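1st attempt posting a full record on here, be nice pls
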Amino acid sequence: MLNIKAILALIAALALIPWTAYALEPPELHGFIQGNFTPRVSGSPDDDFILAEERLQLEAEQFGDALNSRAFFKMDFFHDAVYDEADLELREALVDFSLGKFDFRVGRQIITWGVGDLIFINDAFPKDFSAFFSGRPLEYLKIPSDALRISYFPGSFSFDLVIVPAFERDNLPDGERLLFFDPLAAIPNRTVTEPATELGNTEVALRLQKQVSSYDLSLYVFRGFSKQPGARLISADTVELFFPPLNI
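the predicted structure (as tokens):
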């Protein structure tokens, strides 16, 4: 069953394309079809595959003269053969434009900072570890963020500011396809409390970069929430999963 919210997001993404009213050429369209299959190497009482899906990805990109603008969206249509479900996912839907030494990007976007060999020391943006461990391509490790990104280039250094108004948590294994150790398995009742979407919970990330000889020096600052939950007992049979504040 197709997700209604995803369909509305697709309509919003398509609406970005005419935004570049002074475009010189029609939008560029790209895409691919792929199948992802991850069989189990040991027996399972439920199914023989962790992942079995067919996926169609479509991209549209439009450039314009006004403010050096660019509109871009990326959408995935996929069929999950394990659960026999079809759905679509809006991966990116954004607008870029420039004002002097400032670049702006607004919309749904993939943000990756400070990555080395999959060690995300300074990257506090959401990730899909279920997709990563089940064998999807590496690009699906990152979950898109609905954000505003402002970049400033005065000449001697670069400065990036990312503002994320709505919290998005990591997607972790839930025990259905990927097994994991659960220290609270004996507690039957669980509640999940996510940070509310309000001004005081807006996440902010800063990055200052400077090139020194052949070295790239960076300073990172983050104020927001952990993307992986903590747990606290509410009663003998109830545990609350919550996402504590995180400052980096």
